[in-house]
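Per reviewer request, we include the raw input and output of the structure prediction for the construct analysed in the revised manuscript.
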Amino acid sequence: MLNQRLQQKLLQKLSPQQILLMKLLQIPSMALEQRIKQEIEENPVLEIDDEYDQEKESENDDFDDPNKDSNDDQRSNDVDINDYLSDDDVPSYRLNAGNTSASDEHKEIPMVADTGFHESLLTQLDLKEFPSQKRIIGTTIIGNLDEAGYLQRDLNAMIDDLAFTQSVTTNLEEIEFMLKVVQSFEPAGVAARSLQECLILQLKRLDISPSVKLAIIILDRCFEDFTKKHYDKIMKRTHSEEDDLRDAINEILKLNPKPGSAFSPSTAGNQYVIPDFIVDNKDGILELTLNQRNMPELKLSRTYTDMLETYGENKHRKEKNDSQRDAVIFIKQKIDSARWFIEAIKQRQDTLYVTMSAIMDYQQKYFLEGDETLLRPMILKDIAERVGLDISTISRVANSKYVQTPFGTFLLKSFFSESIQNDQGEEISTREIKKILADCIVAEDKSKPLTDEELTAILKQKGYPIARRTVAKYREQLNIAVARLRKVM
């Protein structure tokens, strides 16, 4: 049975400004530049200021309630534009979002334009004189190579692909012939179907020597033992001496396991890290600045504010119509959106600066000396309590942000770590344990690398009583292999 009743509920509802701010907080500076350009394209009222006035606004503009029903403007006969216009001309500096200083230079990062991996192979195929069918097969093989240069498609499946997509009737023998042709192209090892085949193809391109011959035998007959570094088994199966095995392994280590990566611009052209924060040490005093290069300076378009002025004059002369009223409602909404966006950018910069300042103060010893063992245990809650913000806000700030220090550029969230107690009961950061663990592995004898049990014993001697499984977990987080795979002859 349907009925109607009144019910009161207490709900938390995010305003459009809050949602916008949360989205802007979690993107890095490089993505923020693209986000600003997107907003400029979508909102005609928002534009880039080419001549930025250094004078800053003394008072913030008031904003309308974002939860106000937009239908109220449509139900009213007149639109109140007093919040948008005044008798005096609005100074341009009140419509700006200052992101950089006048001394900052706007520099574009040059991108390398190079021939792609697949295009290079197609060019080499064009230099060969083949009938049209073989050329189509070769083009299909090249099209099925991944960015690393490997052929991931089964040859039998390619027979069906050619029949359905190219109307080419072929057989396995013809495809294998064209595969060998493509494998003869540069770079060496391309179009291999496995890592084993890729390495062997590269070795066959080298000058034949005893070490190269032994390396081919090792990869052909003892590949699994080689990947597991069972050198004793390899010497027995190949009837080789230790010195000969060492020379053969050195030949293998010179090879490229991903031949396609050397040609692919997608893997070599976009590996840039743009720091969001810059920390400098000025004679023992830490200085923090936000990296605001290539950040457009925003303002409201004078064209649309002039439209509102014209409407205001027509309003006093009572010369208004529905089309003018609809136009000014549209402009009003766009101005609101532009002002909210400018304000969100300002709040984002303020939040980033306050949060990073708290992190810099919390880890002051590290930022002064650069010694990772000086890092204090720090979690999101510690910074949230210092700045008076929610933990989720701190998490958004730390996400995908980089800080440039005198000791290098680091991911901001890498400074957050849990704490453990040493043998003296002091709280220390897990980052300190990882640093000591990495130093021990770097200094180890590579012919007899340290096992996890031996690393655990060393850490206990240094005053860090942690379990072996914890050492294994930290080692995996550092992307360090087990002792057997670290062994070098």
